[in-house]
Amino acid sequence: MTDPFDLTGTIAVVTGASGHLGPAMVAALAEAGATVHAVARNAERLAAAMLPLREAGLDVVDAPCDVTSPQWADLLSAVTAEHGRLDVLLNNAHIGHGGSLRTATEEQFDEAYALAVKSTWHGIGAARPGLRAAAAAGGSPVVVNVSSMYGLVAPDPRLYDTEEGRNPPYYGAVKAALVQLTRYAAAELGPEGIRVNSITPGPFPARAAQADPAFLRRLAGRTMLERIGRPDDLQTAVLFLASPASRFVTGINVPVDGGWTAW
Fold this sequence. Notes:
InterPro entries: NAD(P)-bd_dom_sf, SDR_fam, Sec_Metab_Biosynth_SDR. The protein is of the alpha/beta class. It contains 7 helices and 7 strands; from the N terminus they run E-H-E-H-E-H-E-H-E-H-E-H-H-E. It has a 7-stranded parallel sheet with strand order 3-2-1-4-5-6-7, sandwiched between helices. Helix 4 packs parallel to helix 5 (169-189). It starts with 10 loop residues before the first strand and ends in a 7-residue tail after the last strand.
């Protein structure tokens, strides 16, 4: 049998590639043999995040781009033109502010919606020709959207020391929208042989938050496994959804949250 997780020859695009979780997702695909176009707004930060992967011999291409700009569609069209297909589009771009209902601003809601939801919608549209080409060639192309546990459940304000440090309301709102957009797109694109799924990470606190051991203990205590997530904990879910191993899987959301949303 051929390896169902082998991505040799696969062409992938990953957004949010320079963030806390992005490099591990890029590595998961590239280590399985994919050529990965890594996307992030800040070119210098992207280059620094991807350098260790390239030094390890992985086929990773820096693709600096603001996914809220018209250049996002141009980039996806260029990738399709270069390779003749697109097998994986992983939408991971997000914004990382804190706040509450009282402190959130209209501008923050607009920014979060544009970055998480509108860019995903635009990206699916621009990637569709490449995904169709991959399906026509006998592949099982897929869009993978990265949601959050706070798209399924509310953040508990008691976990946070300050109002400014809480998870803000627009974050969960746009992540919930991504799960529904995943279902909608899966239904529409299924007849074309294109799959669409989402992943819901649980507590994967950013590096800055990890400087507070008490906060980490509170987060860990809310999971069934009594620990926080590590970026590499997402790799097997990404690889499964991106590979032929999940060729009959579409329209689903996969929580990778240590049981947080199952209580």
